[in-house]
Amino acid sequence: MTSNSLGKIGLAFGLTSILVISLLAGCGGSTTITATATKTVTSGGGSGATVTVTGGGSATTVTQTTTATTTVSGGGGTGSVMSNIVMYGDMVTNVGCLAITNAHRGELVVFRARIVDPKTGKDMTDKEIKADSAVAVLPDGQSFAMKYSGHSGANPTDYFWSYGWEVPLNYPTGSLGYEYKAVANDGRTGSFKPFEIASSKLTILAFDPAFVRNWSANITATGFSVKTLSITQGAKVTFNNKDTIPHSVVGPDFNSGAIAAGGKYERVFSTAGTFTVTDGTNPAFTLTITVNAVP
């Protein structure tokens, strides 16, 4: 068989393949022919072309090796493309969830984000995101694990990933960049950064007592709901009586008097230091409060 007769083999393909055919003819000798072919696949997958050669006389053995890159424009396939998850978010006030671009030292602000699956267009919950992988990251490397929870009220209708951050009293003032990151259970990842301009980032301002974080502590039948508090100088602590009998709160320089069941007592701590607060009804109930001085 000559190369001209081989050229008559119909090789009508859409992708380039290298076809190597070795002919062992009955008349002795071996001929190796390299041909260039193309193959178009419009659906499904498929293997390379099959070539049958009939020699004159003795049987002919054909060995075919095909090297090809195939583009499939339809049908199934063995591979799949994994799309990443989508994240977006902002920063908001702790009360009211109002979007903010400024925060003061000592103020409590909230990192807030949504995570969306582009395959479904739906929010991704803590059942689909790896534990503690949804984080807010600061420029200095600090990372805070956000939690998936409802937006206010006992029966929320909207849910976010969020983390409450009290700006440290010594945190540098100025523009603060941050980033949100997350990893899905199936390994897909996502991230979000605000625009690299001050109006999109969070600007940290000097301490202002009007924006100091306030706290609360409940009094129950078994003691205070928390054993320690670390607060900023000038912060207010609200003591809520969650028991069915009266209680009182006693500190180094104050005594609330009887707080009725369901009632509350508020106290502003203006002096820096560490104090022990006791329950006047049951002195074994104690709470240690550390008041941090404003620089």
Task: Describe the protein.
This protein is mainly β. 1% of the residues lie in helices and 43% in strands. The chain has 1 helix and 24 strands. Strands 4, 6, 7, 10 and 11 form a 5-stranded antiparallel sheet that branches. The protein has a 5-stranded mixed sheet with strand order 18-24-23-20-21, with no helix packed on it. A hairpin with a 6-residue loop joins strand 23 and strand 24. The longest helix is centred in the N-terminal third of the chain and has 4 residues.
Could you name the key traits of this structure?
Immunoglobulin-like, disordered N terminus, five-stranded mixed sheet, 3 domains, 24 strands, mainly beta, 1 helix, 295 residues
- H and E order: HEEEEEEEEEEEEEEEEEEEEEEEE
Distance between the termini: 95 Å
Largest sheet: 5 strands, antiparallel
Under the CATH scheme, which architecture of the largest domain would be assigned? Sandwich
Assign a percent range to the helix content. under 10%
Strands, total number: 24
Low-pLDDT regions: 1-81
What's the CATH H-level superfamily name of the largest domain?
Macroglobulin (MG2) domain
The percent range for strand residues is 35-45%
**Domain count:** 3
Top-tier CATH class of the largest domain: Mainly Beta
